[in-house]
Amino acid sequence: MPHPSFDRILLTGAAGGLGKILRERLKPFTRVLRLSDIAPMEAASGPAEELHPCDLADKQAVDELVAGCDAIVHFGGVSTEHSFETVLGPNICGTYHLYEAARRHGVKRVIFASSNHVIGFHKQSETLDAASPRRPDSYYGLSKSFGEDLATFYFDRYGIETLSIRIGSSFPEPQNVRMLSTWLSYDDLTQLVERGLHCEAIGHTVVYGASANANTWWDNRLAAHLGYQPKDSSEPFRAQVMAHPQPAADDPLRVYQGGAFVVAGPFEG
Ligand SMILES: NC(=O)c1ccc[n+]([C@@H]2O[C@H](COP(=O)([O-])OP(=O)(O)OC[C@H]3O[C@@H](n4cnc5c(N)ncnc54)[C@H](O)[C@@H]3O)[C@@H](O)[C@H]2O)c1
Questions:
Q1: For the whole model, what pTM was predicted?
Q2: Which of 33, 139, 156, 247 has the smallest number of Cβ neighbours within 10 A?
Q3: Residue 159 pLDDT more than 90?
Q4: Which residues are CB-contacts of 232 (< 8 A; sequence separation ≥ 6)?
């Protein structure tokens, strides 16, 4: 096996849906994979894995988590819409804690699991690129938007490079008509993370995390330097998705890029 390019990669969110996928797929790139989550994780499979449970909201704990790592793949945090108070600790403070720890410990590369929900209030009739104005659709989307701003700041100020992947819908299969446009296969997700780790001089690059779907809303030409070439497409799933009853034409799932997130909340009481 070729020599891995990193000594120790930190994966946050390792107990989550995508974390479990990346736990297997990051191994070729690093001598040791440090796995972290607030939720229970499967035991380490051998010396190439180490478990380090941590609450991202705890600044001191995150500082200790990052020590000794040379790259961070940040997939931990609240991954759906909740009250601002719920999102604040893990996502807003947590991502700040990670960048501060990266600065203190000399980590130079971060892969950030951003989200389509930073642009969710754009209509599905629009085609966006990485320079399009953000229109967060939720407190969750706002937290990811702040994470992207942190990435820009920590590059401009401290030279820490980040790939922010605005993940569409990364599941085994697209589950509804919206996901025919937003679906990201696990293989294409893995390729994006790999590109983010290995591509030189990325500064802070924003890429839309979607497979080569026929009905796309997103143009990745501003991230062309990554060399990302998606291999999968939602098209083979179209017939099975369309066989189900479809939402009305004015349903947010059919109107907004962020789908149902645009009508979540308010969160009171
Ligand atoms: N799956 C998708 O389609 C999708 C789309 C857009 C963005 N994302 C982003 O990708 C990442 C992974 O998504 P996922 O689908 O695997 O979500 P997930 O909810 O399955 O995983 C997130 C993990 O973060 C952990 N976590 C939550 N709060 C924490 C805290 N305070 N400290 C430490 N860990 C904490 C959870 O325990 C969980 O295991 C998330 O950041 C999510 O926002 C995913």
A1: 0.98
A2: 156
A3: yes
A4: 185, 187, 188, 211, 212
